[in-house]
Fold this sequence. Notes:
heterotrimer; B: alpha+beta; 3-stranded mixed sheet; two-stranded antiparallel ribbon; 20% helix; C: alpha/beta; 6-stranded mixed barrel; 28% helix
Amino acid sequence: MLRSVMILKxxxxxxxxxxxxxAVEAGKPPTHRELARLAEKIRSGEIDVGKDYSVNEKTGRFxxxxxxxxxxxxxNCHRGETYRKDYLLVGKDxxxxxxxxxxxxxxxxxxxxxxxxxxxxxxxxxxxx
Amino acid sequence: MSRxxxxxxxxxxMGCRACIAACHVENHFTPGAPWNVxxxxxxxxxxxxxxxxxxxxCMHCEDPPCKTxxxxxxxxxxxxxxxxxxxxxxxxxxxxxxxASVCPYGVPQFNEKLESLYxxxxxxxxxxxxxxxxxxxxxxxxxxxxxxxxxxxxxxKAVTAGKIDRIGxxxxxxxxxxxxCPVNARLFGDLDDAQSNVSRYIGKKKAAQxxxxxxxxxxxxxxxxxxxx
Amino acid sequence: MFFPHATHxxxxxxxxxxxxxxxxxxxxxxxxxxxxxxxxxxxxxNAREQFKALAKTYNVAIDIVLSExxxxxxxxxxxxxxxxxxxxSPTRYTPYSKHTAIRQPVANVYNLPHDxxxxxxxxxSRLGIRDEYIRQINRKWKLKKHPLKxxxxxxxxxxxxxxxxEKSKGKDFDYALEHAFTGKKRPAKDTYLKGVEAxxxxxxxxxxxxYAEQLVGSLDKVRQTVKAQRIRELDLDDYKRAMAPLPEKxxxxxxxxxxxxxxxxxxxxxxxxxxNQSGNTALNPILNHALGHDTNExxxxxxxxxxxxxxxxxxxMVVIETRVGKLQGKAKLSEGxxxxxxxxxxxxxxxxxxxxxxxxxxxxxxxxxESHPDVVSGMESFNDSKCKLYKA
Lengths: 129, 229, 392
C-alpha cells in the first residue's frame, strides 16, 4: 500500500516537473511569480487538468489543480477536524468524509482568488470600511 | 427597480428555530440539505454567559462567487434574477460542488441522495408529491446542489400579479421563514425603497452584512451583537 | 387516591399507588386505569415505578400515538388530533386581553369514527350514568346560561357550540365557524383591581390570603387527608418543611442535599423547545433531525470547569448515577450552568416499542429522578435529585 502511494507521488511529481518547464526547484515552495505563471497555463489549457469537474481528491480538477499541479500541501486548506463554535458556515455540521484531512476555512481561498490575486478571481475586493 | 433583502436581528433572535421549521415545510426539505440553519454560540465564562443565535440561509449576494465559478466552467446553472434572487437550475447542475467550495457562507447543499424524512422508512405523502405538481425549485434531485431561494415561488407570484410592492408585506408574497418569527427578528423587503421596513431598520439598527472581506455584497443583513464596527 | 402529591392538576404521582394500595390508604386493589391524552408514567420522576403499577392493572389508553402508556395498555383507543376534531381552544389569557377560540376539524385522515370526547360519552351512556355525566360537565365547564340538557346525547360539535356561547356571552356560533376567535383588550382598572374592594374591603369581609397563609391551609389539608385515608407511605416531616409559611434554612437545601451526601451533583431537568413531553413531537422529523444536527437527542449539560476537572470532553459518554438508578448520556460542556449541577432535558429517549429508532435517541432522564416533594412548593420535585458523574 505504502509502496503504491510512493509510486503515485513520484509519478505525479515527475509529471509536474516534466510538464512544466519552469524554474521550480523541487523541495522549495514555488514563488508567487511561478504560481501565477502556472495558474495562467492551467487557465489557458496548456496544462491539462482533466475534465472531471468535481472535488474528488483523486480525479477531480479541484484537487488536481491545487494539490497535484500547484503542489499545495493538504494543510494549506484543511485545518483540523472541527470548526470553531462561532464559525458562520451553513454546512459546518455536515458529516465529513472519514478519509478527508479535516475541515477547511474559506479564508484560505481569499489569498489567491480575490481580485488582484494570482488565481482565477472568484471574489471582489473587500467591502469592509 | 427592486433589490430584495432580508434583515435578521440577532439582538432579538432567541434561537427557537421556527424559521427553520417553516423553511423546511415550505421548501420540501430533504435530510442532509438544509436551506436554513441555526448556529448557536455561547459567549463568556460562568457565571457571566450568554448565547448568540445566527440563522443562516443563502445571502443572495450581489456578486455571487457561486455563480462566477459555475459560469467559469461553462455550466451556467446559477442565475441572479431581476429582483436579485440567486437561483440554481437543477436540470443544468452537474453536481461538481465548486459553488459550495467558493461560497464563504457554505450555503450550497449537495444532496447526495434523496433520503426520506423518517430515516429508513418509506416516503410520507408530503414527500411523494410528484414533480409535476411542484414548483420547479421544489423538484428535488439527487446529486445536484440546492439552496434557499428567498421563497422565489412566492415572490414570483407577486411579479406575475404586478404586486412587487406587496413583497414583505403580504404573507403570500413573503418568504415563509420571515412570517413565523415570534419575536419579529426577521424582516424582508426592498432596499431600493428608502422608506421600506428593511431600509429603515438597516439604518436605524446599523445592520451589517457578514464576511465583507469576500466582497460578495450579500443581500442579507444582520443586526449583530454589539453593532457593526 | 390523593397521594403522593400532584402538580398541575394531573396527579402525576398517583399512578404509583397501585404498587402498595394499603400504604396509600386504599382499602381495595385498583383493577383498572384509564388514560386520556397523557403519557404521564413516562414523564414523571422515578418513572419505572409507574410502569410497575401499570403492569398490575388492566389499562385503557386514548391517545393519538402509541406512546409508552399506550404500549402498556390492554386496550388502545385512537384519538383524533387537534386538526381532526372539535375543541374549545381558549389558550391562556394575558393580563391585558381576554379571548375565546375554537378549533374545528380540517381532515379525518384515518376516518376515525370517535375522538376522546365521544369515547367518554359512549362510556357514560353504556354505564347508565349519562345524565349525571352531563350534570358534572355543566358544573366543571361552568355552563350556566347555555348548559347541556340531560336526557339526550351531544356531539363534540354541539358541546363546543355550547361552550362558545357560554364563554363568548352568547355570540353566534356561525361567527365562530367563520373567525374561530373573539377577544377584547382589558383596561388597566379591569386588569388589577376589578371587584377587589367590593369583596375584601371593610370589617367582616374575607381577607385576601398571601401565599404563605395558603401554605398553612394546604399543610392542614395534607394532615387531614393522611389521617382520614390512613396513609403510611408519606413523610409528613417533608411536607411540614416544604409548606412552612416562612423561609427556613432547609428551603435552601433540598431534602436530597441533606440525605445523599455521597452524591456530589444536583441533577435538574429542563425542556428544550424543539420537543415537549408528548410522543407526538418525538415522531416529528421536522422537529427532530431537520431542525439541526443537535435536536434528535438530549445531552448531559456540564459546567466546563467541572468537566475539565473530571477529564470529560465535549461529546464524551458519561454516567449519571442517582439513588434511583443510572444512565449513560453524551456530555455537552457549557459555561451556562452551575459547577455543582447537571442538566438534562426530559423528553428524549422514548421507550415505546411502536416508535422508530429515531424517536428513541437520547436518554430517559425521568427514569432516574428521585420522587419526593419539592421543599419550597410542596409539589412533586423535578429539580433536586442528587447524583454522581463519571466517565463511561
